[in-house]
Design a protein that fits this description.
- The complex is a heterodimer of chains A (about 350) and B (about 400).
- Chain A is of the alpha/beta class and about 350 residues long.
- Chain A has a single domain, classed as Rossmann fold.
- Chain A contains ten helices and 13 strands.
- In chain A, strand 3, helix 4 and strand 4 form a beta-alpha-beta unit.
- The radius of gyration of chain A is 18 Å and the shape is globular.
- Chain B folds into two domains: about 10-90, no CATH class; about 100-385, TIM Barrel, CATH 3.20.20.70.
- In chain B, about 30% of the residues lie in helices and about 20% in strands.
- Chain B has eleven helices and 21 strands.
- Chain B has helices at about 10-15, 15-35, 140, 155-165, 180-195, 210-215, 230-235, 240-255, 270-285, 310-325, 380-385; strands at about 50, 55, 60-65, 70, 85, 90, 95-100, 100-105, 120-125, 150, 170, 195-200, 220-225, 255-265, 290-295, 330, 340-345, 350-355, 360, 365, 370.
- In chain B, the strands form six sheets. Chain B has an eight-stranded mixed β-sheet. In chain B, strands 1-6-5 form a three-stranded antiparallel β-sheet, with no helix packed on it.
- The longest helix of chain B has 17 residues, at about 15-35.
- Classes of the chains: A alpha/beta (about 350), B alpha/beta (about 400).
- The interface between A and B is medium-sized, with 35 and 33 residues.
């Protein structure tokens, strides 16, 4: 693990630019590194954690414009670019149709985070209606505060069930297999998008231990209830290894504004804390590994047992790494902090 | 929604104003929720508190219905996908939320020793507590309730519909009745009072207390014994064999009429050793009179690389089982097979002739063979069906 610690923004940007685009590109390439490649030659995955006290605001949280500013800053760091638009253009093209998968189960991704990402994509010339904020059902999106149906000039927003008129409740006609799973996939993924972003939330999960970038895509299959045994392992990895997810997922934007370290996935305010962060990465496994470290440190600081002690270790990360989805070894993850250092969980 | 043998409009007329009122209420609920038809949003399922669960700390629950005993956090669902923890209260989402309604011959279940030649009003909801890779009904069994078209029919209305259609039996079938056990329980209880029997067509993946509760109101059970190896159950069904065998033993203990079906999947559960083991177990634990049906596999769902079961395989399985001592062994899904009919174990004459779903039971007299008088095991009158009362569990047998 490489912790850049706390830096002044100007200093940070200078250093980040020097690292250049190669590293960011390598993070994506690293997800498919040949198994026989030596560890020394394996590229690192970069994860950016940006923190600001304004992000930790309760209730509706910070305004979209403020989140957007911080997202742009994190994106520049992640891509090693001087301009945010150049960073966003690394991952998405104007011709893309981008599905922003939010997590609305219990404790939800804040709408301001997903909306800020959608507006950021506008900076590369992506028409607003080419972005879809989505989850399983429109009802759950509404309950989480999303503007289902979409503002007149904003991104579209609806659940998979909104496509039920195409049959199968809005899921693909045929079962698709990947490793141990056999599922129908959301037509939003299969038919409506060319690229995906995981706009997940960092929270504890009573079975998987953690829900973040990867488990978010259980909301893309019709039968996640079948795949919660053994800590959801290897099922989370298998779902994300399907080409529909693997080949389209470009970016993770994790809402760590007020993470929850116990009692997830439902909403438990007594176990949330004002971390005030956003976590960005192109490697979903690395993002989840960093998120796990944050969660674990907070649990320790709060005097709670480890996830291992509670017999819900996060098993799926190793399976995800074994499937070439990314880097689970913290030593091989370059974590860049902007603002307060990422390991300060107080 | 699947409705064979009965039109939707006709069915709605049959089940009466109650169902219509429910439909209207559902439509109003959709409007109130703001989910427009253009969004394709599904209505909220019929929500009802589950009967078999424990409350745990921090609003979690432990389901006590099936051997999985899922621990379910608030807002999550169990393995079956039809039971949801809502703020620490476990709810079934499929109480009367029917996705399939058909009038079927009882032989289609298959139940061959239960009121032959009669019909059963057969219903199902979405969901299952197994995931068999060869599932023939996966389009509903492997879906969540909000992903399939359905209609809410309360128990009283379903019983009334059966009576109106002159069906002596309600069958809970197609998917897995265990996952809608509360509805089975309440509907079967109403049916008993109204002179309508209830049969459960199940995978047998249920815990003993819940099973004994159901046996108090059911009149017959058919169990899918999918194979006789833990390996098969684990790899093909994401389940275990032992709990299913335990279910069969409990059913034997209660005395309820039980028939067993095994779908023979080429190369996976068709070895002579496995068939012989299965048959011997049934003889020793259920007795030689338990009817056993071997049915034919057709490639579906996730098993598409195997051929349909050859007739010779089914014929061989039948012979092995009869050699092991079972008296009534059948071959299903193969019309015009001699394995469709019931033969007297004493004189060998045909007692019930079947060709497809055409049934001639004229050689069955007062539950016995018309030729030699040998008693044929089974339930042959509605009075006998409704008179069934389960034997109480033996000391220390009612596992918790």
């Amino acid at each position: 693990m490489t912790d850049h610690g706390t830096m002044k923004r100007r200093e940070f940007l200078a250093r980040a630019a020097a690292v250049s685009a190669a590293v960011a590109g390598a993070a994506v390439a690293g997800r498919r590194a040949p198994a026989g490649e030596t560890a020394a030659r394996l590229p690192q995955s970069r994860v950016v954690v940006i923190r600001h006290e304004s992000l930790a605001a309760e209730g509706q949280g910070p305004p979209v414009s403020r989140v957007r500013e911080l997202l742009d800053e994190a994106a520049r760091a992640l891509g090693g670019d001087a301009k945010a638009a150049d960073a966003w253009a690394r991952w998405f093209k104007p011709a893309d149709r981008v599905g922003v998968k939010v997590n609305c189960l219990g404790y939800s991704t804040r709408p301001a985070v997903a909306s800020a990402l959608a507006t950021a994509l506008g900076a590369i010339g992506l028409a607003p209606d080419r972005t879809i904020l989505w989850d399983r059902t429109s009802r759950e999106l509404r309950a989480a505060g999303y503007d289902v149906g979409g503002a007149a000039r904003g991104p579209r927003c609806f659940g998979t069930d909104a496509l039920a008129s195409r049959g199968n409740g809005g899921y693909t006609a045929d079962v698709l297999t990947s490793g141990e799973i056999g599922s129908l996939f959301s037509r939003i993924v299969a038919d409506e998008t060319t690229a995906l972003a995981s706009a997940c939330i960092l929270k504890d999960h009573n079975i998987a231990g953690l829900t973040c970038a990867l488990k978010n895509f259980f909301g893309a299959i019709h039968n996640p209830n079948k795949y919660h045994e053994n800590g959801c392992d290897p099922f989370i990895a298998d779902a994300c290894a399907h080409p529909l997810i693997r080949e389209r997922l470009r970016l993770v934007v994790c809402d760590a504004t007020r993470p929850q370290f116990q009692g997830g996935p439902s909403f438990r305010p007594q176990w949330q804390w004002p971390y005030g962060g956003l976590i960005l990465g192109t490697d979903p496994v690395a993002v989840d590994r960093v998120a796990l470290e944050i969660l674990s440190k907070k649990r320790a600081a709060a005097g709670m047992p480890t996830l291992d002690a509670e017999k819900r270790p996060v098993r799926y990360l190793a399976s995800a790494e074994a499937r070439g989805l990314g880097t689970a070894n913290l030593e091989r993850i370059e974590v860049m902090s902007i603002g307060k250092t990422w390991l300060d969980v107080g | 929604m699947v409705m064979h043998g009965i039109g939707r409009r006709e069915f709605l007329r049959t089940v009466g104003a109650g169902a219509c009122a429910l439909c209207a209420a559902r439509a109003r609920a959709e409007d109130a929720a703001g989910d427009s038809a253009t969004e394709g949003a599904k209505p909220q399922a019929a929500v009802h508190e589950a009967m078999w669960y424990d409350r745990l700390a921090d609003k979690a629950v432990r389901c006590r219905l099936c051997p999985r005993e899922c621990t379910v956090a608030d807002v999550e669902r169990g393995y079956c996908g039809v039971r949801e923890n809502q703020a620490g209260e476990y709810k079934t989402l499929v109480y009367g939320n029917l996705c399939s309604i058909n009038i079927d011959p009882i032989e289609k279940k298959p139940l061959f020793h239960y009121l032959p030649g009669t019909t059963a009003l057969s219903v199902a909801t979405a969901g299952c507590n197994m995931e068999c890779k060869f599932c023939q009904n996966w389009r509903v069994s492997q879906y969540r309730p909000e992903q399939v078209e359905s209609i809410v029919i309360p128990p009283e209305n379903l019983v009334r519909a059966a009576k109106t259609r002159r069906a002596p039996t309600l069958a809970y079938t197609y998917t897995e009745p265990v996952v809608f056990a509360e509805y089975v329980h309440d509907t079967a209880a109403v049916g008993r009072k109204e002179g309508v029997g209830s049969v459960m067509i199940s995978n047998g993946y249920i815990r003993e207390p819940a099973l004994r509760d159901l046996c108090k109101v059911l009149t017959a059970v058919k169990i899918d014994l999918k194979a006789f190896s833990e390996k098969f159950y684990k790899e093909q069904c994401a389940a275990k064999l032992a709990p299913v065998l335990a279910t069969l033993e409990v059913l034997k203990d209660t005395g309820i009429h039980t028939e067993v079906v095994t779908l023979i999947v080429p190369t996976l559960n068709d070895s002579a050793e496995e068939i012989a083991g299965l048959a011997k177990w049934l003889v020793s634990h259920m007795g030689p009179d338990v009817p056993l049906h071997f049915s034919r596999f057709h490639p579906l769902y996730r098993v598409n690389n195997l051929p349909p079961t050859p007739l010779e395989t089914l014929t061989r399985a039948r012979k092995i089982s009869m050699d092991a001592g079972l008296r009534y062994v059948y071959i299903g899904n193969v019309p015009f097979s001699e394995g469709e009919s019931t033969y007297c174990p004493s004189c060998g004459k045909v007692v019930i002739k079947r060709v497809g779903y055409n049934v001639d039971a004229s050689m069955l007299r007062s539950g016995g063979c018309a030729s030699c008088g040998h008693k044929i095991a089974g339930v042959w009158s509605q009075d006998d069906a409704l008179a069934f009362k389960p034997k109480p569990p033996k000391e220390g047998k009612a596992g918790g």
